[in-house]
Amino acid sequence: MKDTFDHLADTDFPQIKRSQLDTLQVNLGYLCNQQCLHCHVDASPRRTEIMSIETIKDVLEFVSSRNIKTLDLTGGAPEMNPHFNLLVEQATKLGVHIIDRCNLTILLESGYEDTAKFLAENEVEVVASMPCYLKENVDAQRGKGVFSGSIEGLKLLNKFGYGIDKKLQLNLVFNPQGINLPPAQLQLEQNYKQELKQRFDISFNKLFTITNMPIKRFGSTLLSKGLFDEYMSVLKNSYSQENLSGVMCRTTLSVDWQGYVYDCDFNQMLDLPLGPDTLSTHINDLRQSDFKGRDIAIMDHCYGCTAGQGSSCGGALV
Questions:
Q1: Is residue 173 part of a domain?
Q2: In the chain, how many H helices and how many E strands?
Q3: Is residue 311 in a domain?
Q4: What's the number of domains the chain is made of?
Q5: I need a labelling partner for 257 at 20 to 30 A (CA). Which of 101, 216, 228, 284 fits?
């Protein structure tokens, strides 16, 4: 796989600083039952990196000591971590809002049949990958048969009240194909709701549009196809300064499967340490740290979050 780090390091992106920390995004491992073209994590069924129970306990201690409001669980497929249920149950007891970034098809896999029920019982917000409401587009981006599995996963979540009961939030994620930015989020959400309701009687709450980052698998594909520079031009030419105040790295810390901390999930995948000129830092070393006002580590991929309508793990910024 071709690495894009050297192509991103020399940057003119404006320096940004941290605000008040309220969200901890935790990567529970790179193991996944899918292998998507746009994946910036390079997750797949062959990956073996999984967060240990010891590190999960470290995460819970940090959440408790820092009064974290939101615990955002990602992967890979986070549900494939053998300690996923324990983490959710313990974080729920702490009164933390929990997000599960679910690929939907995991809910149908052998050994995970009770996951949808478990998520509903703990009122976990589900943010589900659904890059299109058309079968051919989804299967092209995420693999043959993924669309039908995703539809069944959505129906299962609806069965347990997701997207219907106001306590059970079901939000979908759209990723564009090729070197395109996402379209207007609100209009696309309306299209999704209409199509999924008419075709499959599926309900959900919101649609998040997220820009593909020029790193890991997607970045390597761009380099292989000779499209990297063109895509970076798209991002830079679409830069909007008003998005700077809303980028997720200002209020979020990203934790990798070993417990090391980064300014965001994308920096984690680039192995770009927390803050400029900082050595790798473990979550155990940060329980007393004050993050507000600290510089955020930046490179050219940061243009992905500030292009067009903006992009974050919660969708468009404007």
A1: yes
A2: 11, 9
A3: no
A4: 1
A5: 228
Q: How many other CB atoms sit within 10 Å of the CB of residue 198?
A: 10
Q: Among residues 266, 272, 254, which one has the least CA distance to residue 311?
A: 266
**What's the one-letter identity of residue 193?**
K
Query: Beta strand 281-282 with 170-174: parallel, antiparallel or unpaired?
Result: unpaired
3-state secondary structure of 168: coil
The whole-angstrom separation of Cα 310 and Cα 306 is 5
- What's the token pair of residue 63? 């959440």
315: in domain:
no
Q: Give the pLDDT confidence score for residue 223 in this predicted structure.
A: 95
CATH number at residue 37: 3.20.20.70
Query: Domain for residue 268, yes or no?
Result: yes
Q: For helices 228-237 and 216-224, what crossing angle results, to 10°?
A: 120
Q: Among residues of the chain, what percentage have pLDDT more than 70?
A: 94
Residue 12 three-state SS: coil
Q: Up-side HSE of residue 115: CA atoms within 13 Å toward CB?
A: 26
Between the CA atoms of 284, 288, 291 and 295, what dihedral angle is there, to the nearest 10 degrees? -70
- The domain in which residue 250 lies consists of 5-306
CA dist., res. 290 & res. 275, Å (int): 13
